[in-house]
User: What shape does this take?
Amino acid sequence: MKITRFNEGRIGVVVDDSHLVDVTGLIGQDAGEWPPVGMNRVIAQISTHRPLIEQALHTLRRIPLAQVVLRTPIPWPNKVIAYPVNYHDHGREMQAGYRADHQGFFLKPPSSLSGAGEPIQLPVVPGREVHHEAELGIVIGKECRGIKRDDWQDVVFGYACLLDMVVRGKEERVFRKAFDTFCPVGPWITTADEVGDPTALAMKLWVNGELKQHANTRDLVLDIPGMVQMAAAVMTLYPGDIIATGTPAGVGPVREGDTIRIVIERVGEMNVKVTQGDMGQTPVFAKPYAPDIIKQK
Ligand code: MN
Assistant: This one.
């Protein structure tokens, strides 16, 4: 199943390449609620909702995807966990002396989440580059803590495309990655049963049609079972928590007017526009900085 949010927070199930159906009322959710935790509940109670959805699917009106605005599937997760330097080629291009397996994770604020239909708004940071990072997003399905590595699949709900946007610099990593719209996730969550084995998924990212990143999840330093286990070793994970799994080589700047396209095999494809916002000025980025990125073959 492919499940997402659209327009004013309605919950949709994607039925083919170009249509979704609105299941908000069917599964008793309120699109206008605050805080917007309907999807967290849907994920937590999926075993109740799924038969209802499957039974009603063919009776619901099909809405063209082109006529809706896709929002981020889970706007209010308990946390967004992110693993830094989790592909060796990205570590080499950044000349990073560490890898995620012995570094651990950081967190991105849930307020940085946006959806496929919402443009990235560049902050006003003259003298700085804002980079794309293509990543597979993992969505947690069950509350858990201290799980065994072999049990990782029991707690994973699904997967999505994720862009971990960042202002390059030497300042606090979280600060540089925290701006609104710096974590597009979507275009939907593809449930784990549809993805099958996620440990060898091809992932590509283009900017304006030019291929920039091309990798496979088999090349992750800390693999998917390891990431779930490591996060759950430290924190209780809750339904709707998101894990950004790290980016491969090929990161680079985006500018106003660009379109970022990310495709992950069996997960989805997301096209996100880049616009220039008028916020985000901060003395933290007063000094210009240009990253020294060593191109990888
Ligand atoms: Mn990243």
Summary: DSSP finds six helices and 20 strands in the chain. Residues 2-68 form one domain. Residues 222 and 232 are 14 Å apart (CA to CA).
